[in-house]
Amino acid sequence: MRPKTSVLLEELFEKGADADIVRTMIAFMVQRLMGAAIEGLCGAAYGERSEARSNYRNGYRERRLDTRAGSIPLKIPKLRQGSYFPGFLEPRRAAEKALMPVIE
User: Fold this and answer.
1) Does the predicted model carry a pTM greater than 0.70?
2) The pairing of beta strand 57-67 with beta strand 70-79
3) What is the pLDDT of residues 76-95, one digit of tens each?
4) At residue 83, what are phi and psi to the nearest 5 degrees?
5) What sign does the CA torsion over 72, 87, 95, 24 have?
6) For the chain, which residues make up each domain, given as ranges?
7) What is the SS3 string spanning 10-75?
8) Half-sphere exposure (CA, 13 Å, Cβ side) for 9?
9) pLDDT tens across 57-70, in order?
10) Which pairs from 95-99 meet CB under 8 Å and 24+ separation?
11) In whole angstroms, what is the distance from residue 78 CA to residue 56 CA?
């Protein structure tokens, strides 16, 4: 029996290269990348208790990522101490140029 996620992916691909599908996939990937980066900065996963934890999450701030497929709303995690801003969202730089090395 196949996992549920593979069935959903097959359904998405059957619909074709729709811009909504592309935006959804980009949003999922970017949110996962930011989550992994924050876990590294905090020293523990979200909700995990750990002696190695050095920081905590403190909500999110909204940011829009503009791509050829359209605008994607993102939730950028905030930290209690210090700050986090993903490198692929550098100000005054085309976001797709910054995402290309991550995707390749």
Assistant:
1) no
2) antiparallel
3) 999 999 888 888 776 655 55
4) -145, 165
5) negative
6) 4-103
7) HHHHHHCCCHHHHHHHHHHHHHHHHHHHHHHHHCCCCCCCCCCCCCCEEEEEEEEEEECCEEEEEE
8) 7
9) 888 989 888 877 78
10) 95/65, 95/66, 95/67, 96/67, 96/68, 99/26, 99/30, 99/67
11) 9
